[in-house]
Design a protein that fits this description.
The protein is α+β, with helices and mostly antiparallel strands and 99 residues long. It has helices at 33-42, 48-61, 71-87, and strands at residues 20-26, 63-70, 93-98. It has a 3-stranded antiparallel sheet with strand order 2-1-3. Helix 1 (33-42) crosses helix 2. The model has no long low-confidence stretch (mean pLDDT 92).
């Protein structure tokens, strides 16, 4: 009769955490600051104060960090920004970079 010890794993299992991706909004000379704040609140679920701070970072430093997500979520956020910007006539762009 087999005991519990007969079925124990003798090898350690390495668990890899999924890679995370930073999503940035990039500065341009045409997109209104109000639209950027609206995107940050609606797509990235930021408070008004957080959205204003990120928008100012975008304005001063050419890009601003919107959040860190799994690959699929980051990709979706970038596509949402692109679609909303295009639908509203703005050239706003978002990018993702591996953390």
């Amino acid at each position: 009769m087999a005991t519990d010890n007969d079925y124990e794993l003798t090898e350690e299992v390495m668990i890899k955490h999924p890679k995370k991706y930073k999503v940035f909004i990039l500065n341009d000379d045409y997109t209104s600051m109000d639209f950027v704040v609206d995107i940050l609140m609606s797509v990235f679920h930021k408070s008004y104060e957080e959205a204003e701070n990120i928008m100012m970072e975008v304005h001063k430093k050419e890009k601003g960090l919107c959040g860190i997500y799994s690959h699929e979520i980051a990709e979706t956020k970038v596509m949402q920004v692109k679609k909303r910007a295009k639908d509203n006539g703005f050239p706003l762009k978002a990018t993702m970079e591996q953390e």
